[in-house]
Amino acid sequence: MSVQPITSTSTDQCATEESAARTAGQRVLRIEAAALVQLADKLDDSFDRAVEILSGTRGRVVVTGIGKSGHVARKIAATLASTGTQAFFVHASEASHGDLGMVARDDTVVALSNSGGTAELADIVAYAKRFKLPLIAITSRAPSPLADQADVVLLLPDAAEACPMGLAPTTSTTLMLALGDALAVALLERRGFSAEQFRVFHPGGALGRRLVKVSDIMHGGEALPLVPPATRMADALLVMTAKSFGCVGICDDDGRLVGIITDGDLRRHMAGDLLDRIAADIMTREPRTIRPNALAAEALAVMNMSQRPFTSLFVTDDDGRPVGIINVHDCLRAGIA
To answer: From 3.40.50.300, 3.40.50.2000, 3.40.190.10, 3.10.580.10, which CATH number describes the 214-333 domain?
Structure first.
């Protein structure tokens, strides 16, 4: 079988097709980006009222929708839940078949519908009105059946869908998704949601690893290799060997860390009388330390930052007293590298 050579004509055709695809992609992104700018400019006191209602919700935030709006609603609920707002998704159709039992008296309902006339939302909207639950609508149409019943309407701008037929939900769902992010972040900032709280909700994956604190993985109590300054080096070495951190800390009478002896210190002071000398003679004074509430990634950086990297780092309180010790291997086991 002979192989047909690639002609300049076929090459030009491929390039033209790629160019057309890229042009379509750029057009979609620019249409949606322009719509997002419209949405940002359009935010008014309705957004403030929505945040006020969500912030004051004693129960949970129930986010609902169907079709593409339902997929966006599920993501909004997940974002709210991960940033300190108790929230969950209820499928609009399933709500009519028993899932309304998941909605409690102190909850707030957030309903998504581009047209505002989604028939499947009727039951959950009626339920919210019956039990006087706050109802926030995210829609492109007002007046509409949904907007007319809502306590707060977050109205999307009249922006064309990026689909060339104007049919597939594209721009509208992008706007809904972005508006959900805006609500979640506004609530996060209103509550003063911290990185530590964020880590509680994200214990797995890269986010969880990045937010692990020194106190989460340090060794404390009897595991600490500590001796007084007057300890003979023969005894200091026994402690250093037994604790297996490759170092021993030297504490004064007040329990403050005043020095450290590492393998490197031993090599630098290697002599026939080493074992008869005391720890104060051999120790490196003012050793580097870390705070218990520092991120483990910071501890790893401290261990690697000097010209002579070290493998263990004492953790001290505000008075300079050792409360723990962290090893480079502890960081690696925690997935911090």
So the answer is: 3.10.580.10
